[in-house]
Each structure stands twice: as C-alpha cells, then as structure tokens.
C-alpha cells in the first residue's frame, strides 16, 4: 500500500485531495516545530544503569508524581523501598498503591511507614525507631521527594506549632529527618555507596537571602511576622533553605571522623528534575479550583507539549541514584538534565548563612517539640484523670448496684416473711373462731 502510494506521488504528483504545497509546508513546519519542542521539553534520559538489588532506599513523596516514577524505576531494579507516607500502611488506598507497585515492578520488597512530614513528632518517632537498632540497619539511599505548594491565591497555613506549612514540609521536615538519621548514615561501612538525593526547583533563584528576618518569619509563634508571604515566595525560600542545608549537611558528613579512620563516602546530590505534569503541578496550575481544572483540560495540549511526564522528570533523579561517577566526586553537586550544572545562587554555599539556618532550625524544633511534649503530657494527664474518674464512677455504680441488690433482696425477704406471717395470722383467726363456737 505505501509503495504504490509513493510511486503515484513520484510519477503523478500530489493527489487532488492533498493540500496545496504552501499549506503542506506550513503543516509540516508546524508539526516539526511541535516535535522539536516536545523533544526539547522532555529533557534527557538517564544514561546510567545499575543493579539495585539488596540496596535499602528510604523515600519520601514516593506516592505521587516524580517520586512515584522514581520509586517504580528503583523497585524495577531490585531496590528495597521503604516509603515514608503521610497515611498509615493500613490505609486502603496505600495498600492498593503498594500492591500495584509490587506487581508492576515484580519486586515484593516495598513497604510503607507512616511519617507525616508536617509533624515533627511523627518524624522523630520514625527516625529514632530506625536508628535504635544494633547492629545499625543497612541504609543505601534517602530520596526526599515529598513537598507541598500552596496554589496561587491560597492562604498561608501553619502547623499547630505555628510553623509555616511550606517551610515545614519542604525544608524543616528534611532537616529534622536527616539530623536524626545522621548516626545511621555515618555508621554504614566505608565501602557502601550511600547517597542522599534532594530534589529542588529553580524557583530557589528568586528567593530572598536567608537572614534573621526570613528565619523569624517562618514561625509566627516565635514572634516573627510573615509580612511578605505569598505561595511562590514561601516555596522559593523553602527550596533555597533546603539547598543551603543540603550543602552544609555534606560538610557535616565529610567532617565526621570514622572509628576506622577511613574517609566518609556518603554523598548528597541535589537534583532539579525540571517542570513536570505531576499532581502537585496540576494543583498549582489550576489554583485548586474547578474553573482552573476546566482551563487545564482545554489547554492540556499545551501543558503536554511544554511539561515533562513524571517519568522523564524522574530521569535526573535516577541518574543521581545510579551513576557510578558520584562515588569518585565530592558531594553537594547539582544535577539537571542528567548532568552537573552550577547553582545559580552563590549564597547556597555561604557558610555563615548555613550556620544561622542550622542553629535557628535546631532552636525552632526544640521549642516546638517542647511545646508538643507539654501538650502530650497534659493530654495524657487529662486522659488518665478521665480514666481514673471513670473507674471511680464504675466502682460507685457497682457498689450502688450491690447495695440496691441487697436492699431488694431484703425487701423480698421481708415481703415473704410478711406473707408467711399473714398466713399464720389467718390460721390463728380460724382456730379462734371454732373455739368460740
Ligand atoms: N513537578 C514539577 O514540575 C517540579 C519541578 C521542579 C522540582 N520539583 C520537585 O520534585 C519533587 C516532587 O514533586 P512532585 O510535583 O512530583 O510532587 P507531588 O506530585 O506534589 O507529590 C508530593 C508528594 O509529597 C507527599 N507529601 C506532601 N505532604 C506530605 C506530608 N505532610 N507528609 C508526608 N508526605 C507528604 C505527597 O504525599 P500524598 O500522596 O500523601 O499527598 C506526595 O507523595 C519536589 O521536591 C519538587 O520540589 C517538581
């Protein structure tokens, strides 16, 4: 069929139903431009392969978007995944998701542990449980994909401890988790290729510098006022803080003196996956509204053309997870499109800013955890008091019902006796009567 058609094109020229040559050239040029745009916006594919069998990977955000694609690819290569999820492992949707991930990857070693990244206590509970193991548990990789973003026009949200939500989930949760897991990372054998993969976003370029006023603003309970808050500014500063911390964390790991005097090999890798069509991005584009969703569907062709699929966005993360060169290089590098790029902001390497960020985050966590511990202790006391009162009430009720039963028993006995006495009196009357006769 194609051959006769091509032959007739060659000998007889364009068929009558075909568009004119100019129109045809326009259509071809448009399609070629669209193809090129799509090819460019999809980004590069990961060129590095590696067998991940036996490797233990802790992962946040593995249930959605780029994180879900990364989880699937790592599981396909045999990694043992521990997904840190907001919901408990018994949640029916999560059970189904993990079942699906297991069957698609052919890997049964995928588990979930509940860690709500908006809750410092939940993070501490998981991380202390993880490090409380002797000998130390195997840990090859931590992938920190979870994040949150308020859609444009949305309201500023806070945790119950007064910490701005974007700062909490995108930065402070990762800071807290890595700070507690630090002994577990440092305890890995020298020759284990340990990687901490930190996804970021180019919005960090627009963030104001990390200084005292920015650090005060993220927690209004600490006395700060978040006057310049906007969803975009909050997201940008959380990413700049995350990158500054990630670089400082690499230095913190490098500075550790191992008991065997061998160098620390753990590497932090920052990754900018590029813009992708993930649920988070959809929420942001649609402003979380139905009208937004309608517009999103109408212009989906454009979104498809310009944004990557989650699978393509995961390529740089997979490169950071699998490329062998990271072993030989120093940590703290930024990867974009499966290659190393420079950070657009020099202040991510500013040691003074990193120190200020680290200290103020420690202080904030200490204050919030103390407050939470007092609240938990109060709640526990109240619960105990309620239980004590309920126990006393139950005892009083039991005694009262016992007294009531005794009283009723006595009353019944008295009634019986009275009835007996009544009968006896009746007999006596009769006897008396006959005696009269
Ligand atoms: N998408 C993009 O265009 C883009 C661009 C540049 C960089 N990035 C980066 O890539 C990473 C992934 O982005 P994405 O768009 O794929 O994200 P996403 O689809 O919005 O998914 C966010 C993930 O974070 C989890 N999460 C949110 N709040 C949580 C909490 N309190 N506790 C535990 N888990 C929580 C979500 O869990 P649930 O499933 O329970 O909601 C979900 O798995 C992010 O670090 C982002 O900054 C993305």
Order of helices and strands: HHEHEHEHEHEHHEHHHHEEH
How confident overall, as mean pLDDT? 92
CATH class term: Alpha Beta
Number of strands: 8
Unique bound compounds: NADP nicotinamide-adenine-dinucleotide phosphate
In CATH, what is the homologous superfamily? NAD(P)-binding Rossmann-like Domain
Please indicate the percent range of residues in DSSP E strands (runs of 2 or more): 5-15%
CA radius of gyration: 35 Å
Helical stretch tally: 13
Structural class: alpha/beta
Question: What share of residues is helical?
Answer: 55-70%
Number of domains: 1
Q: Could you name the CATH topology?
A: Rossmann fold
The residue ranges in which pLDDT falls below 50 over 5 or more consecutive positions are: 428-437
Shape: extended
Spatial separation of the terminal alpha carbons? 139 Å
The CATH level-2 architecture is identified as 3-Layer(aba) Sandwich
**Largest beta sheet, briefly?**
8 strands, mixed
Pfam family, one: adh_short
InterPro entries: NAD(P)-bd_dom_sf, SDR_fam
Family: Belongs to the short-chain dehydrogenases/reductases (SDR) family.
Protein name: Retinol dehydrogenase 13
């Amino acid at each position: 069929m194609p051959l006769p058609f091509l032959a007739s094109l060659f000998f007889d020229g364009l068929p009558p139903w075909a568009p004119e040559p100019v129109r045809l050239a326009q259509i071809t040029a448009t399609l070629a431009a669209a193809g090129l745009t799509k090819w460019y916006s999809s980004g590069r594919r990961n060129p590095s392969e590696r067998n991940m069998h036996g490797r233990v990977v802790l992962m946040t955000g593995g249930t959605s978007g780029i994180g879900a694609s990364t989880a699937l690819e790592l599981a396909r290569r045999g990694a043992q995944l521990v997904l840190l999820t907001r919901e408990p492992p018994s949640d029916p949707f999560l059970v189904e998701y993990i079942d699906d991930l297991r069957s698609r990857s052919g890997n049964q070693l995928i588990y979930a542990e509940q860690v709500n990244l908006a809750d410092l206590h939940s993070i501490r509970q998981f991380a202390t449980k993880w490090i409380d193991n002797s000998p130390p548990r195997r840990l090859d990789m931590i992938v920190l994909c979870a994040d949150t973003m308020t859609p444009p026009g949305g309201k500023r949200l806070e945790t119950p401890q007064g910490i701005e939500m974007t700062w909490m989930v995108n930065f402070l949760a990762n800071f807290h988790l890595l700070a507690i897991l630090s002994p577990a990372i440092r305890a890995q054998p020298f020759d284990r290729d340990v990687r901490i993969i930190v996804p970021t976003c180019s919005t960090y370029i627009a963030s104001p510098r990390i200084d005292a006023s920015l650090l005060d603003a993220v927690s209004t309970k600490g006395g700060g006022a978040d006057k310049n808050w906007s969803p975009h500014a909050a997201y940008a500063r959380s990413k700049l803080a995350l990158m500054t911390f990630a670089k400082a964390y690499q230095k913190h790991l490098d500075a550790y003196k191992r008991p065997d005097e061998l160098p620390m090999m753990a590497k932090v890798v920052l990754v900018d996956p590029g813009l992708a069509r993930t649920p988070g991005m959809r929420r942001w584009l649609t402003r979380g509204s139905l009208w937004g969703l309608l517009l999103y569907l109408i212009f989906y062709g454009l979104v498809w053309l310009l944004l990557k699929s989650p699978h393509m966005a995961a390529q740089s993360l997979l490169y950071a997870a699998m490329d062998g060169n990271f072993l030989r290089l120093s940590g703290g590098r930024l990867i974009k499109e499966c290659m190393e790029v420079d950070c657009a902001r020099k202040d991510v390497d500013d040691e003074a800013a990193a120190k200020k960020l680290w200290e103020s985050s420690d202080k904030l966590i200490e204050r919030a955890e103390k407050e939470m511990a007092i609240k938990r202790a109060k709640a526990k006391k109240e619960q105990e008091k309620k239980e004590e009162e309920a126990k006393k009430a139950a005892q009083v009720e039991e005694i009262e019902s016992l007294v009531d039963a005794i009283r009723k028993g006595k009353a019944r006995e008295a009634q019986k006796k009275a009835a007996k006495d009544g009968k006896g009196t009746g007999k006596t009357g009769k006897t008396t009567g006959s005696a009269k006769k």
